[in-house]
Amino acid sequence: MKNIQGIAASSGIAIAKAYHLASPDLSFEKKSADNPNEEIERLDKALEISKQELEKIKEHTKKELGDEHAEIFSAHLLVLSDPELINPMKDKISSDNVIAETALEEVANMFIDMFKNMENEYMRERAADIQDVTKRVLAHLLGASFPDPALIDEEVIVLANDLTPSDTAQLNRQFVKGFATDIGGRTSHSAIMARSLEIPAVVGTKDVTSEGKQNDMIIVDGNEGFVLINPSDEELTAYRQKQEEFAKQKEEWAKLKEEPTFSEDGEQVELAANIGTPDDVEGVLNNGGEGVGLYRTEFLYMGKNELPTEDEQYDAYKTVLEKMGDKPVVVRTLDVGGDKELNYLDLPKELNPFLGFRAIRFCLENENVFRPQLRALLRSSVHGNLKIMFPMIATLEEFRQAKAILLDEKENLKNEGKEVSEHIEVGIMVEIPSTAVTAKQFAKEVDFFSIGTNDLIQYTMAADRMNEQVSYLYQPYHPAILNLVNNVIEAAHSEGKWAGMCGEMAGDPIAIPILLGLGLDEFSMSATSILPARTQIRELSKKKLASNKDKMLTMSTTEEVVEFVKELTE
Ligand code: PEP
Ligand code: MG
User: Fold this and answer.
1) Which residues pair with 331 in a beta bridge?
2) pLDDT tens digits, the chain, 570 residues: what are they?
3) Quick check: is 423 catalytic?
């Protein structure tokens, strides 16, 4: 029995057995072979098991995600059957008298190095395929189990050091009841995805993977940020009760699903949702979302081996717009980089990826990637209420440049006889302090702002959003942040524009009264936060909060702000 404190990342309570999603230790001692024939047999066996596994994963992926996503596994299977790769391994065992592990690793590395340096993109991708399958075969040779999240077929809680966004995308909602990770914060993308998948999650526990063993009984309390390992019978009963209470609470919230959002004193705001895929729209509508305030298009580019085509993107955007009807949908152009990597783009590793070559910086330099996305968006605009938003804007020139490319593509499409809406608002994410400070200048040119506090806080406080060691500095209610947010809202209003927020702060019950008082127009959050937020806002007086705005903005510390807001809203 052990209780571990982490960061509450996605609400709800989950109870199930642990499933370790840790990469196995693949180190081994390079010994000489006692019996080379036996080593060749071991290699054959490991290759065979790996093939069987990959066939299963391929079938599963085909069923769940479609042919295209399954293609990568066909490529992996081809690698495992390629005599040009396998025969040299066997030759090496016989001629150099080495164990199967050594032969596998050395021959694979030789091919990986060769392919990695080739001009041809297709060949470079083969290097990644060989790398992936070699790990699987090596794990089998070493008797280690290789985790396959897509193949989970019983109810589990996934324990992992970290989950990449593409790991998270593979989790099957039917069986993965919750997850807990060692690292990460509330705004790491695995946490954000857990909320859109509505899976209870706790992140940043530091040691859940070393404390929790495979098949241990686990409780994930995503409301309080606790993980219980092998709980007592009393704890289990108490948590089952909490699970029921939470379900009842959700029923209460659901009564407000079709209602607009008004404060106690009759001021209306918009509650929108953040989504990552067209499938998430269902959750938005089920949770009473009045729009999509942020569609993170990165996920269209992930979990595959190449860029999505213009038509694929058009289909995704059209689906979202049509499902949302006349409700607004803010689509953000590609925000790759930071913790969102795309292997096939082969971007150099950077020392500070969050400060590096990402988002609009990458897109402006790679128009071959940017233009197809803009074209797909423009073409989709006739199917709903589309707004386009550029991420990571640091200077007005960047916005002007991005908008000019957008207008250029609009012109091209019209010349091609394609229809484009004439009412697309074009706005920016405000997530870099330079932009928040000079919001007044931006407000003259953009149609709207959406404040990205996940990044704005990390850049303002110089505290990495992924690093739990500096999470004490990641303070959403710090007066520095509130002043920047206020500056953005005032700048927007002075030019007759609207200001929203799509960072996680927008759905935070402590921040909501502050933001209402500062005059935020649109709050965009995880779909599951919408109904609790609507419930809360109905009990708040916007006038009272607004009349205390100056006091809030001149406070000295986060603690003072939190105390003050508590008093004001009691
Ligand atoms: C943000 O930075 O607040 C934001 C919404 O973008 P992301 O979390 O995708 O970086
Ligand atoms: Mg951001």
Assistant:
1) 295, 388
2) 889 999 999 999 999 999 998 777 889 999 898 899 999 999 999 999 999 988 887 887 777 666 766 777 788 888 899 999 999 999 999 999 999 999 999 999 998 888 877 777 667 767 777 888 898 899 999 988 777 777 788 999 999 988 766 567 667 888 999 999 998 887 777 787 788 778 999 999 999 999 999 899 999 999 999 999 999 999 999 999 999 999 999 999 999 999 999 999 999 999 999 998 898 899 999 999 999 999 999 988 886 778 999 999 999 999 999 999 999 999 999 998 877 778 788 777 888 888 999 999 999 999 999 999 999 999 999 999 999 999 999 999 999 999 999 999 999 999 999 999 999 999 999 999 999 999 999 999 999 999 999 999 999 999 998 787 898 999 999 999 999 999 999 999 999 999 999 999 999 999 999 999 999 999 999 999 999 999 999 999 999 999 999 999 999 999 999 999 999 998
3) no
**pTM strictly above 0.85:** no
Mutate to test the pocket of ligand 1, among 362, 454, 456 (most ligand atoms within 8 A of CB): 454
Same domain for 83 and 174: no
**Index of the ligand 1 atom closest to the CA of residue 187:** 8
Whole-number Å distance between alpha carbons of 507 and 489? 17
List 76, 140, 363, 502, catalytic entry: 502
Residue 379 annotated as binding site: no
Q: Residue 303 class from Cβ within 10 Å (0-12 exposed, 13-18 middle, 19+ buried)?
A: middle
**Which residue in 291, 566, 251, 250 sits closest to 425, CA to CA?**
291
Residues belonging to the chain: 570
| Residue after which a domain boundary falls, among 204, 237, 270 | 237
> CB under 8 Å to 469, separation ≥6 — which residues?
none
Contact 439, 282 (CB under 8 A): no
> Ligand 1, atom 4: nearest CA belongs to which residue?
452
What's the CA gap between 72 and 138, in Å, rounded? 19
Residues 190 and 302 in one domain: no
Indicate whether 196 and 335 sit together in one domain: no
Indicate whether 263 and 396 sit together in one domain: yes
Number of separate domains in the chain? 3
Show the ligand 1 pocket: residues with CB < 6 angstroms.
187, 294, 296, 335, 431, 452-455, 502-503
Q: Are residues 101 and 187 in the same domain?
A: no
Residue 84 amino acid letter: E
In a domain, 412, yes or no: yes
Is residue 242 domain-resident?
Answer: no
Same domain assignment for residues 83 and 155: no
- List the alpha helices (DSSP H) in 325-395: 359-365, 367-380
Work out which ligand 1 atom sits closest to the CA atom of 296: 9
31 located within any domain: no
Which amino acid type is present at position 354? F
The CATH number covering residue 59 comes to 1.10.274.10
> 136 with 179, same domain?
no
Residue nearest to atom 6 of ligand 1 (CA): 452
User: What residue numbers bound the domain in which 131 lies?
Assistant: 36-142
Which of 109, 142, 175 is where one domain is finished?
142
DSSP 3-state helix, strand, coil percentages of the chain (rounded to 5)? 55, 15, 30
Instruction: Indicate if 431 and 494 belong to the same structural domain.
Output: yes
User: CATH no. for residue 450?
Assistant: 3.20.20.60
Question: The domain spanning residue 184 has which CATH number?
Answer: 3.50.30.10
